Amino acid sequence: MAARRRGVRGFDGAALRSARTSQHLSEEDLGRAARMPPALICAYEDGRRIPEWKALTTLADAIGSTVDELRPGHITTMEDLRCAAGQSQADAATTAGLTRSGYAMLENGHTRTLRREVAARLAASWHVDEDVVLRAHAATVHAAGEPAPVLEGAVLEGLASHFGISCEALLDLARTMQNPTERRTP
Fold this sequence. Notes:
This protein is mainly α and 186 residues long. The chain has helices spanning 13-22, 27-34, 38-46, 53-62, 78-84, 89-96, 100-107, 116-126, 130-144, 153-163, 167-178. Helix 1 packs across helix 3, helix 2 (27-34) crosses helix 3 (38-46) and helix 8 crosses helix 9 (130-144).
C-alpha cells in the first residue's frame, strides 16, 4: 500500500507558478515575501514537494491569491478545513460535541445531516464562516455518494457496535446489499 503524500490535497504547482508570474514575481521575490527559500518555491512549482496548509496559506497571501486558486478543481472538504486549522479528528469531535467515530462519519460524508449548532462550533474553532463548513460538508456528502437509508448517526453507531464492526464496514455491507450488481462473488 502506497503512503499518502503529505501536504494539501489538490495543490497544483503550475497554479502557483502562474499566480506568481502574473504578479511579475521571481521565485526569489516570492521566497522573500513568504520567508521561504527560493529552492522550496521551485520544488512546489515543479511538483517535487507539496506545501502543508500553513505554508500554502502563506504563499497565497504573499501573491495576493487564495488557497482555492492554488487548488483548481478541488472541492474543499471538512477534512481540508480541519487540517487547515491544525486540528486532529479527536479535537474536532470534542469541539463538535460528538464521539470520535461520529465526527469521522460526518467528515467522511456518511452522516448526511450537519446540525447548525455543530457547524457553528466547528466554524468558530476553525476560524471560518459557518456557511463554509456547511458547504464543505455538502461537498463531502456528495463525493461520498448515497449511503444506505437510515444508517447514520446514533443508529449507525449502535448497529455497528451491536455487530462488532466499524461504521465504515457496516456502510460498505449495506451498500453491497442495496446494490445487488455490486455484490462480490466468492
